[in-house]
C-alpha cells in the first residue's frame, strides 16, 4: 500500500501561541507527531502493509529528521521525502501522490487518532468490495471550519458540506483512502484553480465515485497549543489500551 503524509503547513497558529518547533516535530507525549504517524503506518498487515511512503515537508530540518527516523525504523528505502513549500494542502496532496501506482492512504501530520483505528481502516480499505474509497470520519468536531460528512443508512457518503445538516453525523478526519483513479479528479480541481481539499472531496462524489465513511473515534487536529493536551489524552489512552491499563 502507498502511504503519504502531508507535513508542509506553516504552523502559524502554533507559532503565534508560543510553539516554535515545526509542527511535525511537536511531541504531545514525547514522540514527534510525524514519528508517531510513520510508526502507525508501518502497523497494517497483508495488502495494507506499507510498501511506499511519501512525505512532503516545508523545512529542511524536518526532512533531515524524517530521513533519520526512517533509517532507524527500517523503512528508509521505502520512503521519499519531498521538501517543498506549497500554497495549500491540496497541492501538497498532489505532490505526495504524483508517483503512486495504485491504492493509497494519505493524511496530514497534525491529525491524531488511536493507532488501532488507522490499522482497521487501512486493512478494511485494502480488502474492500463495497466502495471505491474510504474516508476517515469522526463525531468529534474540534476544527474551526469542519467539513461535515453526510451519509445514507449504509454509511456511504452522500455529501461534503460546510454547514451541518440532518444527515451529517460526522466531520472529515483528514484520512483519505483512495484508488489511483481518484487523481484524475484531483487534476481537474487543480486545472480549475480550486485550492482546498474539500473541493477535491466533492469532485470525487460528483465524478460518481462511491465513498464509505469510516468512523475513527475521537480525532484531534493539532492547530492550536490547546490541542496538544487533547492529542496527549488520545495518545495516553492509546498507550494504556495496548498495555492493559484500560
Tell me what the structure shows.
- The longest helix is centred in the C-terminal third of the chain and has 18 residues, at 225-242.
- The protein is of the alpha/beta class.
- Strands 1, 2, 3, 4, 6, 7, 8, 9 and 10 form a nine-stranded mixed β-sheet that branches. A two-stranded antiparallel ribbon has the order 5-11.
- Helix 4 (89-97) crosses helix 6 (182-192) and helix 6 crosses helix 7 (197-206).
- The model has no long low-confidence stretch (mean pLDDT 91).
- 42% of the residues are buried.
- 36% of the residues lie in helices and 22% in strands.
- The protein is globular and about 40 Å long.
- It is built from eight helices and eleven strands.
- The chain has a single domain (2-242), classed as Spore Coat Polysaccharide Biosynthesis Protein SpsA, Chain A (Alpha-Beta Complex).
Amino acid at each position: 500500500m502507498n502511504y503519504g503524509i502531508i507535513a508542509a503547513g506553516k504552523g502559524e497558529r502554533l507559532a503565534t501561541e508560543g510553539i516554535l518547533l515545526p509542527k511535525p516535530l511537536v511531541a504531545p507525549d514525547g514522540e514527534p507527531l510525524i514519528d508517531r504517524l510513520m510508526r502507525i503506518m508501518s502497523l497494517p498487515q497483508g495488502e495494507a502493509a506499507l510498501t511506499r511512503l511519501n512525505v512532503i515537508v516545508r523545512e529542511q530540518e524536518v526532512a533531515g529528521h524524517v530521513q533519520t527516523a526512517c533509517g532507524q525504523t527500517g523503512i528508509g528505502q521505502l520512503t521519499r521525502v519531498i521538501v517543498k513549500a506549497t500554497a495549500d494542502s491540496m497541492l501538497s496532496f498532489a505532490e505526495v501522490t504524483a508517483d503512486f501506482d495504485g491504492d493509497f492512504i494519505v493524511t496530514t501530520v497534525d491529525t491524531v487518532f488511536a493507532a488501532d483505528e488507522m490499522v482497521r481502516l487501512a486493512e478494511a480499505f485494502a480488502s474492500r468490495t463495497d466502495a471505491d474509497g474510504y474516508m476517515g470520519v469522526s463525531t468529534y468536531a474540534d476544527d474551526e471550519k469542519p467539513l461535515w460528512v453526510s451519509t445514507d443508512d449504509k454509511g456511504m457518503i452522500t455529501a461534503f458540506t460546510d454547514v451541518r445538516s440532518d444527515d451529517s453525523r460526522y466531520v472529515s478526519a483528514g484520512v483519505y483512502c483512495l484508488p489511483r483513479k481518484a487523481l484524475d479528479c484531483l487534476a481537474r480541481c487543480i486545472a480549475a484553480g480550486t485550492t482546498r481539499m474539500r473541493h477535491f472531496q466533492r469532485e470525487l462524489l460528483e465524478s460518481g465515485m462511491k465513498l464509505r465513511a469510516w468512523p475513527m473515534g475521537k480525532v484531534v487536529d493539532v492547530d492550536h497549543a490547546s490541542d496538544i493536551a487533547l492529542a496527549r489524552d488520545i495518545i495516553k489512552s492509546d498507550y494504556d489500551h495496548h498495555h492493559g491499563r484500560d
